[in-house]
Amino acid sequence: MGNLANIYTDLGRHAEAEQLKQQVLKQRATILGANHPDTLWTMGNLANTYTHLGRHVEAKQLKQQVLKQQTVILGANHPETLRTMGNLASIYTHLGRHAEAEQLKQQVLKQQTAVLGANHPDTLQTMGNLANIYTDLGRHAEAEQLKQQVLKQRTAILGANHPDTLRAIGNLASTYSHLGRHAEAEQLQQQVLKQRTAILGANHPDTLWTMGNLASTYTQLGRHAEAEQLQQQVLKQRTAILGADHPDTLWTMGNLASTYTQLGKYAEAEQLQQKVLKQQTAILGADHPDTLWTMGNLASTYTHLGRHAEAEQLEQQVLEQRTAILGANHPHTLQTMGNLASTYTQLGRHAEAEQLHQQVLKQRTAILGANHPDTLWTMSNLASTYTHLGKYAEAEQLQQKVLKQQTAILGADHPDTLWTMGNLANIYTDLGRHAEAEQLKQQVLKQRATILGANHPDTLWTMGNLASTYTHLGRHAEAEQLEQQVLEQRTAILGANHPHTLQTMGNLALSYQNLSKHVDAEQLYKMVLEKQISILGQEHPNTVWTRKALASLQEEMQQMSESST
């Protein structure tokens, strides 16, 4: 029965697994006693199922009960006791209690090293788990160091192609991604994928998992078409092997939908996310973490579609459920609060956005520390809100503080650092300090082009921002030249109808207008407007902007015509 329950778990049928494990637990407790090792083992397995079901509080309660009994019966240093302590630490991580998780993992690591040895598989597993906690705490350098140590030992003991070694390589690749070293992450993931495909086969769950991770790296590198292709391949295989309703299949569908968003295929993204949400709600329940995650992603798609009221409604629903289930201070709850604040910004409700960002900042500072990447990100978002409120001095001061800390902690070339530099440059623009804005944007552009490549979306975005600064400086010919370059690359990479491509066309039309190329500007505005109405809809903010710009141009042309007659 226990083995069948484990099969149900592998199939994603967690409710059936729970029912069977509860039955096994009841019988074992009756026959063997509540403290028998087999009974305790079943309790631990049931706790794992609670984790899969997103019921982390129940999982914690059960693991604590098992740990207490194992400590009394087997001793504090017994391998099973230590394994349970490690599992309990993982549950603390799910609950957002990273400091407690770290403390417990360090305790387990110390005891396992003393009892089992530094090279024992359980010890190395704990080291890897501790490294993951360091990642959650934003201590990526420590995580990298620990993961490299695990990888070195596993390679020496198990060999380069052992599943545990390959898992360690994949974990190290994940840390490289957090450090903004996406090219290194890609190289490592391709290595893992090649070996897993050869050893386990193309359809093995671990192989498919690696393919999904590689697709995520392609997204970070701005190679969205490759990400889409890989995710579609993973989705096809998971659907065939696991079924359309398996949690892993649904997760892949959600990732593919996110890629559609990056590609500007918002209608397809919305359709896929709604499908995933419907299935997750039916299978996992409305309050399951995966279901809430999909709701948040759907809200993000609504934002891209300019449907901010719908996004707000969905984010408030997610926030209410996460607060009730995880608590007000859980990282996922705080992330939702930040997303809701961003939606308030889109709706022009800047005072509410400020209040929410300040609340998130206070909690993240208390829980994660002032220098955690998530804390710094919130500070930057708050600074942007200050800009919308016209509090430019406060915005500048905060962005400079964030930039200083990110440079020290993450490095001058980290994506987050460069993003903050761009935000600071925008503040300089708002303050009319265009020369300083130009200098900073050129610096960001140079670094992004070197690190990410000339065609990366972030590089192109920076080029567009620099062109905007040229416009403010009255250097319209330079702005035109830069926008034409961005347009050419975006058209080639994203397609002629992508929202970002259309936005660039609109900016280029404005440059034509500033250069008195009114006929060219009018023609381009009309082309953009027609496509935006078709793709984004009549009421999308981008469509509204283009319509107003075209009307302004035509009014200007009419006045010029009248004055010349």
Automatic annotation (TrEMBL):
GO biological process: microtubule-based movement
Subcellular location: Cytoplasm, Cytoskeleton
Keywords from the UniProt entry: Coiled coil, Cytoplasm, Cytoskeleton, Microtubule, Motor protein, Repeat, TPR repeat
Cellular component, GO annotation: cytoplasm; kinesin complex; microtubule
Domain of life where this protein originates: Eukaryota
SUPFAM superfamilies named in the record: TPR-like (SSF48452)
Gene Ontology molecular function: kinesin binding
Family: Belongs to the kinesin light chain family.
Protein name, per record: TPR-like protein
Lineage of origin: Eukaryota, Fungi, Dikarya, Basidiomycota, Agaricomycotina
